[in-house]
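User: hey, got a sec? need Ribosomal RNA small subunit methyltransferase A folded
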Amino acid sequence: MKVKGFNAKKKLGQNFIFDENILSKIADLADVKKDDNVIEIGAGLGTLTKKIVERAKSVVAYEIDDEAVEILKDNLREYKNLIILNDDIMKADLKGVVDKYFDGNRCKVVANLPYYITSPIIMKLLESHLMKDITILIQKEVAQRICAEPGSKEYGVLTIAVNYYSKPEMLFNLPPEVFSPKPKVSSTLIKLHVLNEPPVFVKNEKFFFKVVKASFGQRRKVITNSLKSLNIDQSVIIEALSKCGIDFKQRGETLSIEKFAELANVIYDMKM
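Assistant: Yep! Here you go:
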């Protein structure tokens, strides 16, 4: 892979993998088949792109770095099933891309995501409802937050949000030493198995997430105090908690996604 003269850009969170065995393992665990359409985010120098494009029907590779894009085009010019887009994934019209390049069919995502913008990218992908599954290399700490259990210090809004749209699976960890340049933290390959339907019923999705965010707004506060930020009469909050069998002195981080859904639905009904 030709990389002579290229310098990784810290501001773009560029950390590359060159180990062929690790790259193959990532592509294998992404389970990309010959009939799969794939979006890759942060294609970089194309080391992982090459593994994906050899397995997939079609690949759209996003890369924001102009210099890296030129290397990508040069190194992978033989692959006719690869479309390279010099664009920011956060500004991308995913529906337009899927319609244009994949005939509107749902696709898979494989990516080595930059640490500084991991969560916004994950939520953009999940909220698009265009993905079959998402296999991403992310900071280990973020992967632990996504897979956290109620009551743990890692459990939070991100946990609830990702588990509302998908079933996450941690695949394997990677130490800093396998990357170039070497980051300060370890990474984890995680797969988000996108759900056809959320695991819980909510009467109003926007209000559900409003309740979740309020509950985690001040983690040390009991839930009756945390929910004051909803600007709903306190008597309604107290009655809703009672109906759901939630102790007034509980903290939001102890509630499961099922309990959050129940609480949000009860409050929503009461305030309508």
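Quick note: The two ends are 60 Å apart (CA to CA). Let me know if you need anything else on Ribosomal RNA small subunit methyltransferase A.
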